[in-house]
Amino acid sequence: MPRGANGYEAVYRVVSINDKLMGGGAPIQVKQGQRLLFHFLNACATSNRKIAMTGHKFQIFALDGNPVPNPQAVDVIAMGPGERVDCFVDMNRPGVWALGATADADRNAGLGIIVEYENQKGQPQFLRPANRTWDYMVFGRPVAPPAPAETIDMIFEKVPGGVHGFNHWTINSKEFPHEDEFVLRPGSKYRIFFRNRTDDDHPLHIHRHLFEIVEINGKPTGGVMKDTVVVPQFGRVAVDLMADQPGLTLFHCHNQMHMDFGFKALFRYS
User: Fold this and answer.
1) SS3 state of residue 79
2) Which of 55, 134, 217, 237 has the most Cβ atoms closer than 10 angstroms to its Cβ?
3) Looking at the structure, do residues 218 and 184 belong to the same domain, yes or no?
4) CB neighbours (10 Å) of residue 176?
5) How confident is the model over 156-165, as pLDDT tens digits?
């Protein structure tokens, strides 16, 4: 765990897919013309990841287990810790390819798996896609639903190199637990504004609830239902949440280090 310019950060010497480093397990063997179904989960505790496969597109139809209103084919999948993506891939480019991280350091450290077409041999090839953008909005509708009467503002800030050299994180200028600050009325709908005032992309998760993404950096959208959303650095995301799961509800950044050092809060029901 090296200390960077701001504070300590977790880094990894090896990363894997299904507990195997790239080349350490059997390849995915396919035939031309096949369509494969993939279920991707970012199970890393602290790192956002991007993956791709040269010459192939991911046809996204569900995020976090929820069908999207506007399925799309993309070159790259980006996932914060805890996010899930369901997609099809049409196998239409014979060869031996690496399905893996777009970042060379991550892929070279093991984050990949070999995809081998029938009667094809050789070293796996990987070419980083020119378009590496990932945008939740392409899977949604171009308009947001009507705004509910209730709103909640959550402002996220970082205290660089705080106690013992670790970064600390605050929500509305305070660390966990935020006693009685976020109180929900059963049956009410809330628009929650996540305002990220830090230089990190934060994967935010609310336990036991789904929410609808309705705005990203001022642009309206609708229809994409999730339980985890990555809020970009110095960005803003708004979500609509129905208070339909009474009881204590944990809200936190899905980056374990951020959560351990203040980035979490309890939602309560009145």
Assistant:
1) strand
2) 237
3) yes
4) 19
5) 999 987 667 7
